Structure formats: C-alpha cells, structure tokens
Amino acid sequence: MEFLKQNILELGKYFQTNCIEIDKSTYFTVIIGQITIYGILVTFYQFVVSYNGNNELVKKYLGVNVVEYYVKKKVVVFDKFISKRIFSFLFILEILYKPVSVLLGNKIDKCIYYMLNSIWYTISVLYFIVFTIMLKEFISCTLTIKNFSNINQNICLKKDIDNLRFKNSIKDKIYMENIELLIRKFECLFIYIKEDNNDTIEIYYDVIKTMLDNYVDNKKNGSTLFYKYTYRVIKKDRRDWIIDSNKEIYLLNEILNNKRILESKKILICIYNIYISLIDLNLKYAEIDDYKYIQDDNYFNEYNNENILDVSEWKNFLYNIYINSDDNIKKYIIKRLFRNINNSNKLYQQYYNRCIYELVRYEINNIFNGRRQEKSFLDVFGDIIGQEKVNYYCAKIIGNNLLQYNKINIIKDVNYLSELNCTYLFAYIMLYYSLYKNRYNQMYLDINILKILWRHHGDFKDKNNIIKQLKDSNIGHRIDDNIYNRFIEYMYEKNEKMIFAKSRNESTLDMFCIWTMKICVINNEIPMYSLYKLEDYKKYEHEIIKLINEISKHNELLENNNIKQWIYNVRYNFFNREKEIPQNLLIELRTLLLSNINIDAVLKKINDTNILYYNDFGKYLLVKIDDIPSQIKQQDRIKETIKKAFTMSNMDIETFLNELVKESEICGCEIDYYQKEIMRSFLLNVD
Q1: pTM to 2 decimals?
Q2: Which of 300, 413, 540, 558 has the fewest CB atoms within 10 Å, i.e. the most exposed one?
Q3: Contact 34, 91 (CB under 8 A)
Q4: Do the beta carbons of residue 667 and residue 558 sit within 8 Å?
Q5: Phi/psi class of residue 323: alpha, beta or left (left: φ > 0; alpha: ψ in -120 to 50)?
Q6: Beta strands in 182-250 (DSSP E)
Q7: How many whole angstroms separate alpha carbon 353 and alpha carbon 392?
Q8: Which helix (H) or strand (E) element contains residue 309?
C-alpha cells in the first residue's frame, strides 16, 4: 500500500515539474486526428449496424434493432463509454483547453499549468488507445455478425432482449398482482409484434412460454399444503383466485384472438398446455373452497346451488383453440384432456368429461353437415375412442343427430363402437323412428347403417344398460320397460302374420317401422313374406295397404331387394285379383304402380261421378295404355282423363313421358322404348 502511495506522489510531482508545453501544431494535429478517427469509427458503426444480411434475417425483435443491439453488446467500449455524455464532456474540455490556457496562462500557477498540460496529453493518449480497442472490437463484430446477430440462433441475445423488455421492477412486484403484470406484458408484446412486422411468429415462442410458465410457477405456490390450511385464515372469504381466474381466461382469449398467434403450432400447443395447467390449479382451489359442481353453460344452472363453479368461459376457450387447430394439434388436445378424465377430483371429472363430450359432438356434427370426413374424425379421436365413456358419447351424439338431420347415411362405419353401444344405437334408431313416425312422416330410413349396427350388436336382453342409455337420450321421456319389452318381442318375431296380428293392439310403436326393420335388417337373408292365400290377404288387408302407402313415401326403401320381393309378391298374388281399388289405398301414381292395380278396377273408378283423382289416374292409364282394350281407349272419358293429367303437369310431351318412365322404374315397372312410343302416339292423337 505504501509502495502504491509513493508512486502516485512521484507521478503527481512529475506532472508538476515536467515543464511540458502544448504548441499550436501539436494541438491541432491531435484534435484533428481525434475528430477524424471518431468520424471514421462512427461511419464504421453505422455501416455495421445497417447490416441486413439475407432477407430471412430478423431485423427487429420486441421493438429492438437486433443488429444494433448486438453491436452495442459486442463493442463494449462504445456502449459503456463513447455513447455516454461523459465522453462528449471530456472531448469538449480537451478542445477548449488550449484556447483557455492561452488566455489565462499568466494567471495560473506554473505547477498547475504543467500538471494540466500533462493531463491533456494523457487524455489524448487514452483517447487513441480507447479508439484502437474499439476498432479491434468493430473488426471482430464484423466477422461474427452474420452468425451471432441472428435472433433465431443466438439464444443468449434473445434472452437479453427479453429481460430488457419484460423485467419486472421492484415497485411493480409490490403494487401489482402477478396476473396484472402478465396482462401488461402481453399488451406490450402485441405492440412489439405489430411494430416488428416479422414474417415468422415463432421467434416469440420462447418469450411467450417463459412469461406464461413463470406465472404458472408463481401460481402453484398458492396450491401447496400451506395454502390449503392457511387460505381461509388469511384471505377469509375473499376468494381472490376467482378474480385471477377471470383475468387469466381474459388474457388467454386475448392471446388467441391475435391472428399472428394462430400461425404457429408451437405457440398454440404452448398456450393449450398453460390453459390445462391453469384450469387444473383453479379446480384444485375450487375443491379446497368446497365447490361441488361446475356450470359450463351461461344460461342454465342444473344444480341450483351457490357452490357451483362457472367454467363456461374456460370451456369456450378450449372450443376456440380446438377449432383453430389442425388435426395433429387436435389429436394432442384430445389426448391431454383424456389424461384428467379419471382424476379423483370430482370437479376434474365433471369438467373434462363435458369438454370431451362437446368436442366429440362438434366433430360428429361436422360429419353430418358435410364439413368433416368420418376417417379424419377417427384419426383425431382414434387413441381414445375405444374408452367406455368416449365410445358412449359417440353413440349418443350420432343418435341425437337424427332429430336435426333426419338421416345418418353419411356414417359408413361403426367398428369403433362397442357391442353395447351398437345395440343401444340400433334400439335408439328404431324406437325413434317408431315413436316419432307421425311427427316426421317423411323420415329417412337408413337401412345401411342399421345393417352395420346389427352386425355389431350385442345382447338386446341386457335391458338394464340399454334402457339406462335410452333414458339418457333425447327420447328418454318416452322410454320405459314396457315399451322396450314390446320392442324386443317384435324384433324376435319371425312370422309376418304375427307381427300384423300384434300390431292391431299396438298404440305406441309403429308397425311400419318394426316391419321394415324385420324385412330389411334382422331377417335380411330370410324371405319375410308369408301371405300366400287370398284369405290371408283379406284378413290382413288393412296392414298390407298401410305398408304400401308408407313404402311409397320412401325412395330409399324402394331400392332394397327384400322390399322389392315383398311388393312383387303382394302385387301379383293379391292386388291383381282385386276388382275394385282398396278403400284405404292412397290414390297416387306411385301407389298405383307399386300395387299394379287391375286396370278394370281403375276404369271402374274413373266412371264414378265424384272422381277427384284425374291427375294420378290419367298418368296410370297412360302408363298402362297398352293393356287397355282398343274400344275402351277411344272412350271420351279415358281420353279426357289422360289429357287432363298431361295438361295439369304443365310439361311438354317429352318431359312428361320421361317423368313417367322414371317413376315407373322406381316402382319396378320398367317402360321400354316400344311402350314409350305407344304412350307418345296416344298423347299426340289426344291433342
């Protein structure tokens, strides 16, 4: 220490006694040299900072010029000294020293004068040393800038800028809640993202993940055992976590509403993981506060109890992030949700069950309305669809969609449904058709899906489970043990006569639906018709005519081979023998064609005075014109009936004939070219 002190004293004495002068040429040479070097280095700095590299290089990150920040960080002398005010102050003093010393030279003590001159020379030398060091740093920076100023590769540089922008002050930590700080950070982040206008959003992944992870970690500190036993003592009944929960879901929605965020799969997955962590913590807090149920609908409270946690906004957020994701992310979302479905916490079970149910319903609804393919749905849910609850959700939602879409022929495969659920869905469809037949008279009967379900069905006599599922459906209020037992009895009845006989005392289930199920699905490979004698027909005439009337309303049934065989049987064994049109038969072209009514019965009918069916009779007579005797064809009544049917159609001859040909083919009464020409000729002669 004494040695250092002695050297300092000797150095001070040297400065006072060295008699150093600053002549004019030396002064101007040094000052001009310094200004020149300063100008060169500033130009060099501007050149380096303006480096653009290739077009893919990110130029701004969080509002900071990345290259400039890197240069300042790399060129320490410039950032720590040259760019400060102290440097400018010293440089101005250095310039002004010589003129001032000339003016005041005689008034200043010689020792002080020589000491100031020595200091001036020392500062000048240090100036050149500093600029030499800075030049070396600039050269080093120039050689490395291409690689290290790339924000995507330089993690340290990225973290430095993150800390620069989002480091919390002590004041903020004291006076602001964590969630409020987080909201403010993201508000700033969105402004920076907009200002940066970078092509890729994924460069912000780390800062987003870090901010959200830090918040979750801080929140977890409140879910420990200490929190559990001190929460009510400290907070009493304030339940601040609910306020934070509302702010959290607000923030998550704001993040998701930013269109740039949706561009990155990584960020979407990160947000989803944070969402799961936050809802888990909130459900844990809810359990501690003795919440018993959750409410996920803003308009309905099924429990009418104050201890209900409203999670409707959280569920809506999950729905929004799901629909804005591709199939890979959707698959990840579903798998992550399913992890918590069997959690011991009842609130967890309620929430995650409802979330999965809603997402399954969303996807199946999209299948029905044509926006989703069944295969892509299975790709997303394939890993969990075999689980009992999820499998039941699928069956239930498919069944419920009948009410809205009135057909399910777009469902091509139900191999993913269990035997129990196939059994339930088959029973549901048939009971739905049967119970609501009168309400939806034109209901589509999807034979194909019924056949698929029948091939995979289990034991219908396991009625406890099936009735339980049926009562949980949208027809549950119409289901009881008695109805289900009668349904089973019909289903296992093989004799057509017995079905007809039992249906006469049936007031709830529709005979047509039961009979269709039997002939098209259950007894698909066994001839269903058993009425061969005329007395059988007379006995069950009412039922057979009702079947013809109903079949005529369903194009899909007219394509079924078993239905075609049955129609052929009753057509040629019974209707052809009738001398009059049956009283309860609907008088329409299709029913006339299906039953192939004896032409004599039709001729007799049109000769009645109060005939209201000219149009359909006229079309039928034209189709059968070749079967009508020649002398009868020329009767005015026949011509008038056919002409009126043609006139009322408001079609030209060709279109009218094509419509008749098409309708005849549907009903199994094909019209060949020769017959069509006979019909054309008759129409032309009538005109």
Answers
A1: 0.71
A2: 300
A3: yes
A4: yes
A5: alpha
A6: none
A7: 12
A8: strand 308-310
